[in-house]
Amino acid sequence: MIARRTLLGSATLALAAPALAQAPVLKVGSTPTGIPFTFLDTRTNKLTGFMVDLITAIGRDQGFGVEVQATPFAALIASLTTSRIDLIAAAMLATPARREQIAFSDPVYGYGEGLAVRADGGATWTRLSEMRGVTAGAQIGTVYIEPLKAAGLEVRTYDSVADIMRDVSLGRIQAGFGDAPIVAYQIAQGTFRGVRLAREYQPSIVGAIALGARKGDPVMAKLNAGLAKLKSDGAFAALVAKWNLPASIGA
Prior knowledge:
Layout: H1 2-21, E1 25-30, E2 33-34, E3 38-41, E4 46-48, H2 50-62, E5 65-70, H3 76-81, E6 87-88, H4 96-99, E7 103-104, E8 109-111, E9 113-118, E10 135-139, H5 145-150, E11 154-158, H6 161-169, E12 175-179, H7 180-188, E13 195-197, E14 207-209, E15 212-213, H8 219-232, H9 235-242
Helix pairs in contact: 2-8
């Protein structure tokens, strides 16, 4: 009888074990060019960065795994709404227009636009209102294009921030705009040569990035719970320090 009970107990555990081990794995869209938030590490050929670390930590805390997929910034929302991915973890500002299409988590990190000019004598501007008539570059799909046009700039659009910085350094455009932490980080790392960050410039297009999910998806509760926990226990601050991010603005 003892042996039979032992066998039955072992069988029950064997059946239960796979169910306990199988945490859901969510497909996460991240951009390969948004260093230090999301980028492709050429040494490992894997996506990494602040937002990748963040969603991985939230998943670990909330009981789901993540499969991070390289997705162009302009394709992130379409990929989410058509279920090619389940979440967005990238340097995406949670704007009213984007909220009409998808749901966003509580604010993750706040910043404004960064202005890059030629390192050898680029003009000095302190605010956007001074730049009417200036030829400037901005990345396709970002929130900067329309405000720059409204301020009277001649805007050229690019697939990546790297392409913008190249044209600034070559003098093809007078100014380049991008997410301030991304531009600052890559200039400091020597990735963008021949340009400098205009430290005197005061950003006016300020917002907060957040994690994205489809509207009505119950995973949003887990995203917010995990984010709140990481912010309260010091893990979030540790990630900010790891990726050398400046102080968050308004988030």
